[in-house]
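Internal tracking record. Fields below are filled automatically when a chain is submitted to the structure queue. Please do not edit lines marked as system-generated. If the sequence contains nonstandard residues, flag them in the REMARKS field before resubmitting.
Queue: standard
Priority: normal
Entity type: single polypeptide chain
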Amino acid sequence: MTASASARPIVKEEYEEDKEMQNELKLLVDKITGTDVKLIPSALEMLKYLIRTSTTSMTSVPKPLKYLAPSYNLLKESHKNMAKGNIKNSLADVISVLAMGTGGGEEARRNKECLKYCLLGTMKDIGDWGHEYIRQLESEIVQQWSENDCEVSENMLMPLIHDIIQFNCTHHAEIQACDLLMEIDNLQWLGNYIASNTYQRMCYYLISCSKYVDDTERSKIMQLAFDQYIKFGEYSKSLIIALQMNNDELVNQVFKKCRDKLILYQLAFICARHLYPLEFDQKIPECEEINNIASNSHLNAYFLSLARELDIMEPKLPEDVYKTWLEPLPPRLQILGENMDSARQNLASSFVNGFVNAAFGTDKLLSNDSGNKWIYRNKEHGMLSATASLGLIHLWDVDGGLTPIDKYLYSTEDYIKSGALLALGIVNCRVKNECDPALALLCDYVNINNEVLQIGAILGIGLAYAGSQRDDVLGLILPALNVSKSLEVLAVTSLACGLISLGTNDNEVPTNILNVMIEKHTSDPECLKSVYMKLMGLGVALCYFGARDAIDVSCNAMEVFPEPFKSAVQTMLLMCSYAGTGDVLIIQELLGMVGEKLEPTEQEKPVKETPKLKEIPKGKSKKIPDWDYGMGQAVAALAVASASFGEEIGMEMVQRIFGHMGKYGEPSVRKAVPLAIALSSISNPQLPVLDVLTKYSHDSDDEVACNAIIGLGLIGSGTNNARLSSGLRQLAVFHAKNPSQLFMVRIAQGLVHMGKGTVTLNPLHTDRMLLDPVGMAGLLIIAVSLLDPFSLILGKSHYLLYCLAVSIQPRWLLTLDEKLEVVTTTVRVGQAVDVVGKAGTPKTIAGIHTHTTPVLLAVAERAELATDQFAHFAPTLDGICVLKKEANVAS
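SYSTEM-GENERATED OUTPUT FOLLOWS
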């Protein structure tokens, strides 16, 4: 009772106050619409004052706007009959503001009366009417601009637009200013209003918007952001934009503008991580050091210092990864599972040994005197892969890694020799050396009349010079396309050419590969059914990596192929050219391909030929497989994951769609779905993704199960994820009697423990702003190879798994001082938070833990300095960061 009684006087008081305001507003309207001209100016000023003081906050509809709504038409009529002059203009301002509220109703919004009367008004101090009024004007300007109405020309709108932009940029509404200028396609004006206190927020927003517009608009946005970063001395951020645009001129401009030695070092580290072929030839003292950094020659030494810091130098055996003693099996079955198809299990152990000890320079199987014995426990192609695993163990160590491999070059066994050649290429992976040891050692074997040695040498060169775009290397291996008759050698050569000329958008290399494909098809139409021809098509596609719509020449050339093959290779072109772009239109197009129901019409000929195959008694007549009409759809499923890669919202939506593909898709699509899911979550074992792939790993279709198992390895690669490791041990028990699935389980276990948990396969780097094209290419080669796992990875071409070597990178945060020596400092690490367009200065990380560098970062994690002792030059703390000691901070 007491509470209700005390509330009554307040309600009554508010009611009296509202009544008083209504009377006052009615009196003012009467004066404005009355006949006494002398009373109008003062009444208008009073009315303006009342409205302005109430529209400063828009938590609810301002009372003056609500109470003046019935008088809206009366004021319009009065304005119409009023003589021209300042009073009429002032009244137009008031009507414009009232049109924003409920006064004009739907008709006022339809006729854009807020904008109309604003243009008829004084057009002075429009910001005084409040943010909501500015927003209403912005929406009506955009409508007006798109309609291009003759009544209101663009020239009339210009002064108003500039006033609005000026207001927004000085009142913490920079995002609205960006939106308005993007809507009316005049973003170039924005540069005049960007200030030192707003450029960070505005450029960050513009760059995030660039993912959702067409290529022309994207170029404008990125160029504007680049110019602002250069203007305000943000060289590392401007370099990132230049690399995103793949624009050599802009990259060179950044290096020319920058004069600070430490910032130049940081820029070189970013280029090295992106594998950008940087040649810094300016006449400055640091030139040699910058070129050393860009060549990645530091990588091995820094990685080993990280390993020593974490105390993980002790080599591991495959058994330490399998942990078979934890598998709930009786000893008899456990022995059976391990010894079944022992050559295959030894081969799996060779891969696992290589992956787990990658870049550590030592292991317990091959690095000692028993290395030869272990290699001879494998058969033929198994020997090739077992020897090549030495390349992974000595990854990035060009100076010390060649000697342990060299002795195998003198083996009498061709497979061991070929494996050593491939190992030499893997060691040089991502590292540029002035002596070119890979080229010197492998060049003699490229055009040799021995398929086995050719495969090792050519793939080795492809991996060693991936992304280098060197014409001399291409000139060495391209002739092999015209000389060799083996489809396997042609496929490996095409992939090597694609890796070396990655993203050049030059038609010469793809034209050479396509000519060979067309010749092969002309002489033997059945050869297109070979899995190696698909890999040749992928080699063509890699040349156009990131080219977007510049693929017409090769796309048209592929029209000569029959339908199932044609759609597959053309989709590969889309997959590579739009990789990591997040282009919504392309993703929609690819999803449309996946959803089509393909029914062969003219291609029924192979069906008629099948009885002839059956007549052959007990012969192994499966050399020429039947057409897989869904191969184009399978590639399209991978292409969806590739195109959406790096764009978080797109990746999340696409993963939901993959669930429907797995349920209702064609058999070809179903085996591609686990790979596509894994591709969109590389080295990022999220629980929902892990559960979906675990379900597929028990599928009745062997190909789906095998792909899901290796997919589990890819999503957990380099993470040491305990839940995933436990799940793979259970799968080893479940598939104990299935050699193929068990082989994949072992490979997956090796991937999860890759580099003893210190590396990643995720090609996104520098706070997920850049996509490493070489790393992505390595993943795409593996994904396409696994579309037919039994013919390639589970057949004799398992050495293709070493294409992952180009994707391996440390997942570290390593801090260096001015002398490029490792220095320890305190950092906060947490989950990255998207702060695009958020007001104020929100926290960029959540769930913070404090660590001392060097630290390992997961895919979705971000770090920031926890001390004022140092300043950093990288856009975010990620990878290798150069720190500068602050002068004003005591040691």
